[in-house]
């Protein structure tokens, strides 16, 4: 059932590791500015322990109280985690985002890659979305109900299994075709059915079956290896790409970089009732703590979360808030303010402050032209 429109929103906040404590507050600053601009009551941020800091305070990177709190929230922001640096036994366990995705059943990972006008990109004009199945496939650390699909019968033999089911493939294919209807109406299925014939063959066939229910949407499919070539040559020609878990992870890093930088690649992980904003990139430990990371991926992930909430609550104020942030990010980059990965000199905090000011300025402009009566944006239809 669609929840009713609400006046207050409570969003979880999990800062994570590495650059997380820099880019997550940047996203909060922009969301708060946009919420104020459209007349939403201040968003209530619920800070929850996660990652390296939680190992120190709670003895585990994903405390039970964090998972219990997430059960009571419909949306939250997750910073990246640096789980490869955790001490054992935590390093060998399912990482924090995998744990949360599995716990909350967030089966769809939506990862757009869009280049910015006026900014450098390997393939200018890229505007595609990877729709990645998030719960099974070839990531054996998360494709089983209990335990892991990876094991070592002897010290010199390691085995992993992949899982593709009709049910999960149908759900992700529907998400991809529904998204394509709102975009340029084309879906590309990525698989490796010439080698992994049964598993990725099932994925391809079920996606095609679902696609037959969407006659307005054109469909093609490629093997994962060929797809990397097509993306490098002509990423700008793709629209929606649907694929299994591991292929989607790899293709989304590639697409983000082709569009300009991994630092601009946002994502949302969702089920039908909950959603989590999470930049597509990792914790970038090589640049952490220096205020130089690009916060765009995290800011746009939070923006996607507002759009998800807007649709769920039928709340057009959230849609306007998201639009204000998108325009502000575009305008800020176009005006030459950008972090080093995009060829600029701005710090993380300066870029976020510039976006927040641009949000406030465009909201003031919008209310100034809204004559007569100068109604607040929140009252406009
Ligand atoms: P994970 O496996 O957790 O996704 P990863 O191994 O893919 O992580 P990242 O942490 O994403 O690696 O970093 C890859 C490269 O991209 C690094 O050089 C990092 O500095 C750069 N990078 C990642 N995110 C950003 C960002 N927001 N701004 C600038 N550079 C970034």
The total strand number stands at 12
The level-1 CATH class of the largest domain = Alpha Beta
Q: What is the molecular shape?
A: globular
**What's the mean pLDDT score?**
91
Largest sheet: 10 strands, mixed
Helicity range of the residues? 40-55%
Bound molecules: adenosine-5'-triphosphate
Q: What is the chain-wise order of helices and strands?
A: EHEHHEHEEEEHEHEHEHEEHHH
**Strand order in the largest sheet:** 2-1-3-12-11-4-5-10-8-9
- In DSSP terms, counting alpha (H) and pi (I) runs of 4 or more, how many helices? 11
- CATH topology-level name of the largest domain: Isopropylmalate Dehydrogenase
Low-pLDDT runs of 5+ residues are 370-381
Query: What would you report as the Rg, rounded to the nearest angstrom?
Result: 21 Å
Distance between the termini: 24 Å
Q: Give me the CATH architecture of the largest domain, please.
A: 3-Layer(aba) Sandwich
Identify the CATH homologous superfamily of the largest domain.
Isopropylmalate Dehydrogenase
Percent of residues in beta strands: 15-25%
Domain module count = 2
Structural class: alpha/beta
Protein model, in words:
There is one protein chain. The protein has 381 residues and is α/β, with parallel strands linked by helices. The chain folds into two domains: 7-108 and 269-381, Isopropylmalate Dehydrogenase (3-Layer(aba) Sandwich), CATH 3.40.718; 121-259, Isopropylmalate Dehydrogenase. The protein has eleven helices and twelve strands. The strands form two sheets. The protein has a ten-stranded mixed beta sheet, with helices on both faces. It has a two-stranded antiparallel ribbon with strand order 6-7. α6 (199-211) links the parallel β8 and β9 (218-223). α1 (20-37) runs parallel beside α11 (348-369) and α10 (316-334) packs across α11. Mean pLDDT is 91; it is low at 370-381. Adenosine-5'-triphosphate binds at residues 19, 80, 253, 262-263, 281-284, 286-287, 293-294, 297, 341.
């Amino acid at each position: 059932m669609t929840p009713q429109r609400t006046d207050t929103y409570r969003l979880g906040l999990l800062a994570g590791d590495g650059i997380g404590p820099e880019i997550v507050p940047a996203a909060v600053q922009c969301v708060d500015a946009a919420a104020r601009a459209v007349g939403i009551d201040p968003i209530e941020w619920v800070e929850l322990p996660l990652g390296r800091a939680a190992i120190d305070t709670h003895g585990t990177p994903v405390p039970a109280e964090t998972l219990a709190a997430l059960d009571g929230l419909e949306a939250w922001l997750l910073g990246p985690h640096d789980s490869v640096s955790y001490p054992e036994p935590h390093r060998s366990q399912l990482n924090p985002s995998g744990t949360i995705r599995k716990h909350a059943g967030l089966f769809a990972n939506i990862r757009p890659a869009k280049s910015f006008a006026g900014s450098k990109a390997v393939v200018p004009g890229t505007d595609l979305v990877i729709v990645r199945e998030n719960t099974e496939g070839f990531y054996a650390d998360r494709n089983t109900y209990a335990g892991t699909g990876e094991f070592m019968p002897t010290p010199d033999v390691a085995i992993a299994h992949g899982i593709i089911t009709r049910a999960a493939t149908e759900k992700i294919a529907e998400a991809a075709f529904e998204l394509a209807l709102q975009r340029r109406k084309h879906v590309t299925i990525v698989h490796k059915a010439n080698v992994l014939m049964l598993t990725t063959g099932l994925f391809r066939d079920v996606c095609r079956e679902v696609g037959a229910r969407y006659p307005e949407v054109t469909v093609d499919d490629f093997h994962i290896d060929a797809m990397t070539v097509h993306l490098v040559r002509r990423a700008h020609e793709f629209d929606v790409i649907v694929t299994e878990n591991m292929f989607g992870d790899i293709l989304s890093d590639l697409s983000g970089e082709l569009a300009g930088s991994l630092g601009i690649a946002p994502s949302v992980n969702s089920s039908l009732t909950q959603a989590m904003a999470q930049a597509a990139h990792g914790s970038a430990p090589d640049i952490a703590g220096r205020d130089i990371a690009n916060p765009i991926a995290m800011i746009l992930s939070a923006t996607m979360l507002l759009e998800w909430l807007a649709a769920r609550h039928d709340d057009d104020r959230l849609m306007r808030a998201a639009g204000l942030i998108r325009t502000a990010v575009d305008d800020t980059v176009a005006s030459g303010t950008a972090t080093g990965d995009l060829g600029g000199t701005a710090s993380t905090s300066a870029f976020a402050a510039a976006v927040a000011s641009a949000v406030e300025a465009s909201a003031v402009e919008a209310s100034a032209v809204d004559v007569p009566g100068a109604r607040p944006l929140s009252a406009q239809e």
